[in-house]
Amino acid sequence: MEGMAVRLQNLRKSFGRTEAVAGVDLEIADGEFFSMLGPSGSGKTTVLRMIAGFEAPTGGTIELGGADVTRRAPFERDVHTVFQDYALFPHMTLEQNVAYSLKVRKVPKAERLARAREALASVRLEDFGTRRPAQLSGGQRQRVALARALVGRPKVLLLDEPLGALDLKLREQMQVELKAIQRDTGITFVFVTHDQEEALTMSDRIAVFNKGRIEQVGTPAQIYERPATPFVAGFVGTSNLLTGDAAEQVVGDRATYSVRPEKIHVLKESAAAEPEHDSATGTVAEVVYLGGATRFLVDLDAGGRLTALQQNLETSSEDVAALRGSRVRLQWHRRHNFPVPHDPSTHDPSTEGPLAKDPAHT
Amino acid sequence: MTDTAPAAGSVRRLAGALYRRPRLQLSLLLSAPLAWLVLAYLGSLTVLFLSAFWTTDSFTSNVVKIWNADNFTALLTTDVYRQVALRSVGVALAVTALCILIAFPIAFYTARIASPRRRPLLVVAILTPLWASYLVKAYAWRLILAQGGLLDWVLGPLGIKGPGYGLTATILVLTYLWLPYMILPIHAGLEQLPVSLLDASADLGARTGRTFRSVVLPMILPSVAAGSVFTFSLSLGDYIAVQIVGGKTQLIGNIIYSNITLDLPLAAALGTVPVVIIVLYLLAVRRTGALSSL
């Protein structure tokens, strides 16, 4: 198939009796920024390690640029990896680290030094070439790892939670930088993360993993606005589910519906209902001041609890605290209701993991 | 003062007094072992060195306490002693090199390939030979190496003869004896080597051989150096193995041993030779950074 950087067919991996990857089919286009998102243990890192060649699949095939590489060693594949722990060689200088892939490929010394320096300059570490990894901060090491993986111009770059060890500010900065590098180089990025916000920010497309399988593949907007399964609804963003009686009273249909918290307006109870909108009254159970926004947890009179997120345009933290226990009306446009297909095999993840966060919680 | 303040018993008071005087605590901790170290350890070395400046009555073999440097002059000017010293260093280096060659694949298996559950068992298996008496093991090798012995019998069909007793046999037996001291540090070093570094090397295009040369070897070098300190110094000081399987081979160790009853001052002077060589060796090893990771 033309234009496919990575193609996985029925990929499987078992460790002893546990099935880490249980049949994954995936096509990643040339030049795409593709994220594999899921909780730890969902199989996303194992898939990445199989693409790199560190793990041999138990079943299925891996194609890179149209060629079957399932049985090839890592050094026979045109992919480079940015490791979670960076895996910089501690006994080499930064220049030697970055030039390693060129040296292995017997690029002449002058050329590989020039290219290593250029790569270090592209991550703003040109003055650190003769230092060793131990003398760098976490963020700097991360950038060296990136330069080392990019200098050989691989067809595909694999990134295994590369920002996981960085603090928040650095992480946000690196997200922007990574995206820019990907756009400039045109290299296909396959990015593994458990941070849904990171995936939504950077990706062209996302695959959501759960229990060794892919639950949904789509653009960030598709994943966020139209989750295909309750798991995706819960893992990406806050799952605000209306079920049973509540769904019947509010939406008018006895099914499971989800509304994203930021779509919901918090109004006075007496406010009139607008056309094309659904609304429900309830009592504010909890108010969380988040700085830029406020999160309301509202117990509905119809049953169930919804989370609503409001920008703090004029409110202050004192105003917000006074709202606890007050009566409110929640209102949102009907187009923001989306039905969630019921899948008995996956239960609601918002109750099981600490990873389900709403996007404003940073 | 609060209600929870403990009752002030005399032991508790003493403990409190000590707690406030860390220097006194430290001196109580270290005075006995330090005394042992200085008196017994350094003291005996000093006595050895001093007695090397005495002479011996060549008729009675009694020590004559007349100060001179004749023994050291003899060491430096007599060809035999120089040859023996060189031969001993050569044997120690050969044993060290052989141990490295044999230990590496074993340690690689025990530290990286064997399942984590089996690793402790394998380490115990490596240590097991150390529990058997050194003498017994050396004599076992005497039987193996004897003319018409096990080795000759095994090699016979191939048309090869065993080395018999001599220099080769000595190197062989010393390698056998000290191998565990080389496997253990390399095992420890390989076990600490992050897997991701090996993955990264392969990922960047390096075949196994290149990964070994460029990543594994440089990172494991301190461990190898640490192991070589053991194999080198143990080989240099050995005198039993060479007596049992060495045939007519002379090494520093057995020359010292045979001189102890005849000419103690000369034996003492000879005894300083391995000490000096090992100090030089340690200085060389220090440059690899091995000692800082001990």
What order do the helices and strands come in, and which of them pair?
The complex is a heterodimer of chains A (362) and B (294).
Chain A: E1 4-15, E2 18-29, E3 33-37, H1 44-52, E4 59-64, E5 67-68, E6 79-82, H2 94-104, H3 109-122, H4 138-150, E7 156-160, H5 168-185, E8 188-193, H6 196-202, E9 205-210, E10 213-218, H7 220-225, H8 230-235, E11 241-242, H9 244-250, E12 257-258, E13 265-268, E14 277-289, E15 293-300, E16 305-311, H10 317-321, E17 327-333, E18 338-339
Parallel strand pairs in A: 3-8, 3-9, 6-7, 7-8
Antiparallel strand pairs in A: 1-2, 1-4, 4-5, 9-10, 11-12, 12-18, 13-17, 14-15, 14-17, 15-16
Helix pairs in contact in A: 2-3, 2-4, 3-4
Chain B: H1 10-20, H2 22-51, E1 55-56, E2 63-64, H3 70-77, H4 79-113, H5 119-127, H6 134-145, H7 150-155, H8 167-192, H9 195-203, H10 208-237, H11 240-245, H12 252-259, H13 264-286
Antiparallel strand pairs in B: 1-2
Describe this structure in words.
The complex is a heterodimer of chains A (about 350) and B (about 290). With about 350 residues, chain A is α+β, with helices and mostly antiparallel strands. Chain A has helices at about 45-50, 95-105, 110-120, 140-150, 170-185, 195-200, 220-225, 230-235, 245-250, 315-320; strands at about 5-15, 20-30, 35, 60-65, 65-70, 80, 155-160, 190-195, 205-210, 215-220, 240, 255-260, 265-270, 275-290, 295-300, 305-310, 325-335, 340. Residues about 345-360 of chain A have low confidence and may be disordered. Chain B has about 290 residues and is mainly α. Helix content of chain B is about 70%, strand content about 0%. In chain B, helix 4 (about 80-115) packs parallel to helix 8, helix 4 packs across helix 10 (about 210-235) and helix 12 (about 250-260) runs antiparallel to helix 13. Chain B is globular. In chain B, about 30% of the residues are buried. The model of chain B has no long low-confidence stretch (mean pLDDT about 85). The chains are: A alpha+beta (about 350), B mainly alpha (about 290). Chains A and B meet through strand 6 and helix 2 of A and helix 9 and helix 10 of B.
